[in-house]
Amino acid sequence: MSQLPAGTVGDAVGVLLFTFICLFTNILLIWLYWISHERLSYVALIAYFALLCTTSSIIQQIYNYTLWDDLMWAQLYYTKANYNNADVIFNNGNFGFMRALAIIRLFCYIIESSYLMTYSIHMVLTIYGYWGTRRSAERVYIVASRIVPFVLDVITIGLLQTSAVQSSFLAYMIVANVQAVTSCAVGVIIISIIINKYVNTKLSWRYETASTRNSKGWKLLFRSSEGSKRDSEPPQVQISRTLPTVFDNNWLVFRLCIAIILISAFMVASVVTHLPQRDDVAKDAQADQPDLSAGRARSNIIGYIYGVTPGLAIWIVFGLTRAFRQIMYERFVPRRWRLKGTKPPLPPPQSPWSPSYDVQGPNDRLELNVARGIMGVDYPLDDMRRIARRSSSPELMAAPFLVYDPASSQSRSDLPVSRESDIIWHG
After folding, report:
1. Which end of the chain is less congested by CB atoms within 10 angstroms, N or C?
2. Going by DSSP bridges, is the β-strand pair 238-242/216-222 parallel, antiparallel, or unpaired?
3. Mean predicted confidence (pLDDT) in 268-277
4. 209: helix, coil or strand?
C-alpha cells in the first residue's frame, strides 16, 4: 500500500504509466535491431543501457512510493549525519538501495551520451568520405568507440566513490557531468552539421524528365570541373531508385531535430537539477522532521520523467525509419486492417555506392558521400559486422530513407569510370 501523501497518487500512477510506455518502446527498438542482426550497433548499445536505466527507475519508483514515509524519516537521519558529503548532496540524501539505483542510472546516462557521440562522429566521417580510403582506421575506431566510453564511465563512477571527490561538491559535479555533458555537446554539434548537409544536398536535386525512360524523376548531378564540357553528352550511368515521400524527407529532419532538442535538454538538466540540492540538503539537515508534504512528493515523482524519457526518444529517432515502420506494420497490424497496395521494404543498394566509385573533384565526392551517408546508403547499422564477412540476409536499415529499385542494380564491374555521373531518382 502506498505511503504517498493525499493528492499525489494520481501523479505517481501517471509517471509510472509513462515509464512503462518508455520501457515498451525501448524493448520494441531492441527487438527491431535483433531481428535485423544489428545487436552490437551503436544504437542497439544505447538501447540496452536505456533499458537498464528505465528498469531501475521502475524499481525505485515502486520502492519509493510504497515506503515513502519510512524512507523520508531514514533519509533525514542519514542527511543529518552526512550533509557535508558531496555524494549525499548530489543524490539528494538517497542512500543504501536507493543510492545504488541512482548510481546505475548515472552510469547509463553517461554511457548513452558517449555512444551517441561516437555514433554521430562515425556517421559524419562517413558522410564526408573520411573512411573511404581508411578502412583499417575505421575498424579500429569501431572497436575503440565501444570500449573506451565504457572504460571511462567505469573510471568516472569509481572516482565518485573516493573521499577526495566527495569532499568537494564542485569537484563531484565536474567528475559526474564532464563526460556526459561533453558527449552531448559534441553530439548536438555533429547532428546539426548532418542536418545542414542533408538540407543542402536536397536543394541540389532537381526534378526532370528522364530521357531514357518515359517517366519523370529526381536527378542529382555530380559534376567535376570538366562537367560543363560534357553537358551535351548523354549520361553514362543511370541508377534508378524510388524517391522517398515528402513525409519521409520531412520526418528525417524532424527526428534529428527531436534528437537535438532532447540532447540539449538532457545536457542542461544534468547540471541545473543538481545545483539547488546543496541548499535543499542543508535545509533538511536542520529540520526536526522530514518534509512529507504533497509538494515535496510531487516534485520527487516528476523527477523520474527525466531519467526514463531516453527509452522513448531513441525509438522515435532511430526506430521509426521506413524499414522499421514497415516491419512493425506487417507484424502488428492485422491483415484485414492493412491498406491495400502496401509493399515490403526492398533490398538496399550495393556496388553503385561503393567508396571506389570514381567521382572526380572534392565537391562531387562530398555530395556523393552525403547521399550515401545521410540517406543511409552504405551506412549499415550493423557496423560491427563490417569487420567480418557480411551475412546473406539483407540489411533492413542500409537504406532507411530511400527504396531501392533492384531492376537497375549493377555490379561494380558493370559501372563505367566517369567524371560525371547522373543519378536518377524516380518518384
Report:
1. N
2. unpaired
3. 80
4. strand
361 vs 238: CA distance, rounded Å: 20
Q: Can you tell me the distance from the alpha carbon of 103 to that of 99, in angstroms, rounded to the nearest whole number?
A: 6
Task: Provide the grid cell at 307.
Answer: 531519467
Percent of the chain scoring above 90 in pLDDT: 27
Task: Please report where in the chains the cell 544504437 appears, as a residue.
Answer: 43
Domains of the chain: 9-198+247-332 (1.20.1070), 205-244+348-426 (no CATH)
**Sign (positive or negative) of CA dihedral 324, 386, 127, 367:** negative
DSSP per position, 212-261: TSSSEEEEEEE--TTGGGGTTSPPS-EEEEEPPPHHHHHHHHHHHHHHHH
Q: Yes or no: say if 224 and 420 are a contact pair by the CB < 8 Å rule.
A: yes
Q: Which three cell numbers stand for residue 175?
A: 567528475
36 SS3 class: coil
Give the residues across from 51 on adjacent strands: none
pTM over 0.85: no
- C-alpha cell recorded at residue 102: 541512482
